[in-house]
Amino acid sequence: MLLPTKHIKIENALLGVGAEVLAELDRPKTVSTLFYDIQARRSEYEMTTIEFDWFLLAVDFLYAIGAVRLEAGVLKKFNQ
């Protein structure tokens, strides 16, 4: 679930989704915009889509480890 296994691809594990979230956070974005951007990117590269709840689990994971923060309704990388 958190890490990829032989049954879970990296693109579907929370660690992989979290990496995508960080890659898309080139500037502060709302949660819905970030989700839309990730879905568009996955569609462009013909990857499987993710559910919104799985996306939120990845964002929660990143928040818990201090990689992102929420300010005034937008997500930012912690170092921005």
Gyration radius, in Å: 12 Å
Strand proportion, as a percent range, falls in 5-15%
CATH architecture: Orthogonal Bundle
Total beta strands: 2
How far is it from the N-terminal to the C-terminal residue, by CA?
Answer: 29 Å
Q: Indicate the percent of residues in helices.
A: 40-55%
Shape: globular
CATH-defined topology: Arc Repressor Mutant, subunit A
The overall pLDDT average reads: 90
Low-confidence segments, given as residue ranges, are none
Number of helices: 3
Major sheet description: 2 strands, antiparallel
- Specify the CATH class: Mainly Alpha
Order of helices and strands: HHHEE
Please identify which CATH superfamily we are dealing with.
Winged helix-like DNA-binding domain superfamily/Winged helix DNA-binding domain
The largest sheet has its strands arranged as: 1-2
Our count of domains comes out at 1
Structural class: mainly alpha
Task: Write a concise synopsis of the structure shown.
By secondary structure, the protein is mainly α. It has 3 helices and 2 strands. A two-stranded antiparallel sheet has the order 1-2.
